[in-house]
Amino acid sequence: MPEHLELRLPDDVRLHVEATGPRDAEVTVILLHGWTLDGRAWHHQLAHLRERFGDRVRVVSYDARGHGRSSCMPLRTATLAQLGDDLAAVVDEVAPTGRVVLVGHSMGGMTVMEYAHRHPAHFAARTTGLVFVSTTAEGHTHTVYGLSPRIARLIRLAETTGAGVLARCGSWRPPRALLRALRPSIRWMLFGDRSEAADIRLVTSAVARASLRSIGGFRASIGAQHRLDTLAELAHLPAAALVGDRDRLTPPPCAESIAAALPTTELTVCPGAGHMLMMERPDEVNAALTGVLRQVLERPGLGGARTGTGDAPAAGVGTAG
Fold first, then answer.
1. What is the pTM of this model?
2. Which residues belong to any copy of the AB hydrolase-1 domain (predicted)?
């Protein structure tokens, strides 16, 4: 059974964290979900890692601030920079020793990049592998929603305007009845050629748990981030990047630019798949994650030493019940 933890950050935001495996495992895998989702998005990977690696690997997932079972936050902290700081705190409190592999989907992948950018010494001391799933290092540069550039610009304008309104709505959650009505749109935006009804329900449930402040507030930061230069400094790490060729939010050029910045990256393009690869193509995501973990486990001298740099924020952790 997973441990359920509550991590209180310096600004009093509480993160809901789940962990399985011993704290002194050889490697800790931290799974970071995407915008408006929560840690349940990784259920296929959680099961695979426990079955494949047992106690050799500790697996941690958490709900980002304003998402899932984590608390809402001040609007000024609805930024990728803050999420990078939050990840540094999670590493310190939930995986205090040993090597870490970071796995990020969409906004989660951007969070990993921000952690590397803002806390380079801390990142270098602990991080030994990377997996990027349906994410980008170039903001909305390549996002055209599978439509013509002109229509995409109009949609982006409407989305940006709407995000500003939602961001001011605080901790309110989207009405579930509205989200049920929007399931066809959610399916079109996030999934490719095929999808399971259970996956649509899970995604809809996750969006229903996200605060309107997080749904609207993170949009500007996500669209503006550019971290290819940061990635280029990480070329020595085992890494993998995956993308669906029907992804309307982070299409293949996003993963291709990540792979170009990280020349040792194994790039996987999944035909017919959309943005939710860990649900749509769990076997491919599991294989990529397994490949990176094998490299890390076979190279025991790769990273993982504490440097005492003190560049991560302090936090407290306790049992949530």
1. 0.88
2. 29-288
